[in-house]
Fold this sequence. Notes:
It is built from 3 helices and 4 strands. By secondary structure, it is an alpha+beta fold. It is globular.
Amino acid sequence: MTSGQHQPVSPDSMDCYVYFKTPQAQSAQVLQEQALWQQAIAAQLGCRGKLQRRPEIRDGLQTWMEVYRDVPPDFPARLSALLASQSLPLLNSVPRHQELFVDC
């Protein structure tokens, strides 16, 4: 391999990151809905996620991150469809940004 060339990365080992922001006052509701949401994901998609939150609060908003390891390429679409079918008012009302990353 010459300088500047990259070896192709296999999409078999993708991680999905989903982030969203909510008012700090709704953190208890986020945690409550996330517990239900993670149960639904485990039951329907066979995957366990990890929830993280930025330590700082900006303009009264907290940034949350869901992390899913080793998922297939269609996982974000399946995740969105599953969320739309759930009765999770807060999680269904905030913009959620999904991104896939592969190991190098």
